[in-house]
Design a protein that fits this description.
168 residues; 61% helix; 2 domains; 2 helices; single chain; mainly alpha
Length: 168
């Protein structure tokens, strides 16, 4: 089939083709603009993702340091608790010793420390083991120096170690 195209029809077809070409150029420009925007968005998102990964890695390193510090601190805390427990036991033992020694006395021989006793009766029994009559002597008057007494009992709380012996 052969078709005869007139000059008017050809001009109309050329105008349609020209409008289609212009529309294609506009669509292509719009597509190019959208693609460029997409590329910028991808680039920006990639840069943000890389920055976030670097920050996450730095945070992981900080967390590891904090974990090591926490472990050392927990070890130190456990050591400190053990020390406190040990010291509390020692304090209790010393408090018991102190309570036991509250009535303690010293036995002096010519003003020099001879022995330490729980109470005055124990000191007299000990002195009796040396042949001293436990009932034949009492507390020496305080105006007489301890060095002049052969045997003397003095409360531990009032006796201080010094050249003369009894501080009371």
């Amino acid at each position: 089939m052969i078709r005869i195209v007139t000059r008017t029809r050809l001009a109309a077809l050329e105008q349609v083709a020209e409008r289609a070409l212009e529309r294609m150029r506009a669509v292509q420009a719009s597509a190019d603009s959208a693609y460029a925007g997409h590329l910028r968005t991808v680039y920006d998102l990639t840069a943000d993702a890389e920055a976030a990964e670097r920050a996450a890695e730095a945070n992981r390193a900080d967390a590891e340091i904090a974990r090591e510090i926490l472990e050392r601190t927990e070890t130190q805390l456990a050591d400190a608790r053990a020390t406190v427990t040990e010291q509390a036991a020692r304090i209790d033992a010393l408090s018991g010793d102190q309570d036991a020694m509250a009535g303690a006395v010293v036995l002096l021989h010519y003003g020099q420390l001879h022995s330490l006793h729980r109470d005055e009766a124990a000191a007299k029994r000990h002195a009796a083991s040396f042949g001293i009559d436990p009932d034949g002597w009492g507390t020496v008057p305080s105006d007489r120096p301890a060095a002049e007494s052969v045997w003397r009992i003095s409360p531990l709380s009032k006796w201080a170690v010094a050249v003369g012996g009894d501080a009371a």
